[in-house]
Write a structure and sequence with these properties.
single chain; about 190 residues; alpha/beta; Rossmann fold; 6-stranded parallel β-sheet; about 20% strand; hydrolase; Isochorismatase-like_hydrls; Isochorismatase-like_sf; Isochorismatase family protein; Isochorismatase-like_dom
Length: about 190
């Protein structure tokens, strides 16, 4: 874990903690990920730092070798955030139709208009939505931090590969506790 600091204007990006995805067959219990996400949401909101809630409402077009999921109309409530997220009027809500939260949205310009220079990314799935969002944030010039204990995947190999091989090249990895401790330094 290599978190060195958090920029004064850091945003929390919560990827796909929504009703239509949270019931997926994750590699472990999703409950600790939700609990850690709630803790981070609480700390960012307490300090009036931007919170971005991302939901998926479909996927990018194009052929793939593997069957595409969610190509039919989405069931009612699919994109609604789980209750634990406790969506607030001050949250930035981004609905994506690709793996990453930046590619098909105005998230980059919205964060830059708030003078955000760093993002902390959490959510599901580690090897798709979280990783794609981290790649896009890095490419857009944001400092990236990833709370690796506040993310989960349905594929163990994807989860581990992203954490060990991809994330250290895109930013700094940390635990939820590391990030909360770094935020607490601002209160001294």
């Amino acid at each position: 874990m290599a978190l060195t600091t958090l920029d004064p204007k850091t945003a929390l990006i919560v990827v796909d903690l929504q009703k239509g995805i949270i019931g997926a067959p994750f590699i472990g219990s999703i409950t600790p990920v939700i609990d850690r996400s709630v803790a981070l949401l609480r700390e960012f909101r307490k300090r009036n730092l931007p919170v971005v809630l991302v939901n998926a409402a479909g996927g990018a077009p194009g052929r793939t070798e593997q069957p595409r999921r969610h190509t039919e109309p989405l069931p009612a409530g699919f994109t609604e955030f789980i209750p634990e997220v406790d969506q607030r009027p001050t949250d930035i809500v981004v609905t994506k139709r690709s793996w990453g939260a930046f590619a098909t949205t105005d998230l980059d310009s919205r964060l830059k208009s708030l003078d955000v220079t760093q993002v902390v990314i959490i959510g599901v799935a580690t090897g798709t939505g979280v990783e794609a969002t981290a790649r896009q944030a890095y490419e857009a010039g944001f400092n990236v931090a990833l709370a690796v204990d506040a993310m989960m995947d349905t594929r163990p190999e994807a989860h581990e590969y992203s954490i060990r091989n991809i994330f250290p090249r895109l930013g700094e990895t940390a635990t939820t506790e590391d990030i909360i401790n770094e935020l607490a330094k601002r209160d001294l």
